[in-house]
Amino acid sequence: MIRIVETGDRRIAAFNARPAFPEEAEKAASLVLADIKKRGDKAVAEAVAKFEGAKLAPSRFLVAKAATKKELAALEKTLDSKLVKAVKDAHRRVKRFSEASLRKPWSIETPKGGVEGEFYTPMDRVGVYIPGGTAPLASTSIHTVTLAKVAGVREIVACTPAGKSGEVNSILLYALLLAGATEVYRVGGIQAIGMMAFGTKTCRKVQKIAGPGNAFVTAAKRQVYGHVAIDQVAGPSEIAVLSDGSVNPQWIAADLLSQAEHGSGYEKSLCVCTSKKEAEAVKAAVLEQTKSLARRELVERVIAKDGILIVVAKSVKEGMDVVNAFAPEHFEIMTKNALKDLKGTKSAGAVFAGAWTPESAGDFVAGPSHVLPTGGAANMFNGLTPDDFRKRHSYVSFTEGDLRETAKSIEAFAAIEGLGAHGRAATIRVGK
After folding, report:
1. Could you tell me which of 351, 102, 361, 372 has the C-alpha nearest to residue 241?
2. Pick the catalytic residue: 26, 52, 267, 329?
């Protein structure tokens, strides 16, 4: 059911407490990963048959390699022109945002004329995971691969489940190749994570794995951390909407449902209103709109698990405190002064400000990546950026004057920590 509560109600804390890692997923990931580490492609093929229903020889794992402009143009002709246009639009916008967001090298002068700073280099080979269980997520192809390409990564491996047919959705494949994937594999689930993390004869090991996935994919990513880097540990989708009554309740209801329809049944949609009247209107609109959704049954599962909660706050400021405590993946500020109220945000993966900015714009075309922290992790993790596919290097270039100025401090720390050779490395250059 959909509850309406006031701030301070104990049910808010219960709503905020998302489950950690399901034991079932952890056990399954552990077994499959250990098998892949030991037997490579053979274990991957068996896992694909067991969990995806397709009997594939390792020679069929690879779907495509980097496409030329001519090859992309040929693929376009086989697709719906409206879909191609949408993918190109999203790619253009995400690419533009990504290029603008890249951190720039910087440097400062040291006190005695030296220089120090930071510079960045791209990873050589990364992997991205594209979910495809309940729907082919062509948008995720754009929101992961594009960022890696902008970062300068030369080899971008993409894995996506193909199901019993063993065929990758054509528009998803097009999106991957347009964005810059250099290898696309029809392997999903835990087995895809293991293949990319450990490497097999068919697919060489990557340095980092990024992208969303279900509980099993998430468990696998967590367990291979250390063998490879990962972007974050993510879970079911979630949204919070803060409203002061200035936005149509029907719009807000649609936004809450946009995340509830994802399919796991564990999605969370939080709405914080500044009046009971508005809260009632939003609830009624959610229930009414649910009836006409193609994914009605999926949404009703979320509602049955108390996955939609409406909170009545005394003010926008108090409502902001409720949202920050929830630390949502997506946060919509539906208020008159949304850009001003934005400054109160402390914990959110991505923020959408103003009545004309539905979260779905961010999911598909706006620019920032939609790969975001969930389950309250937005209070400590950020969303995916191109810099996640680069290595940061600090550098220092002292002059003789800099070393002479700091030598005594170096020697002092070396003495404190019992590291004589550290101290000598400085004093041998400048004398006692």
Report:
1. 351
2. 329
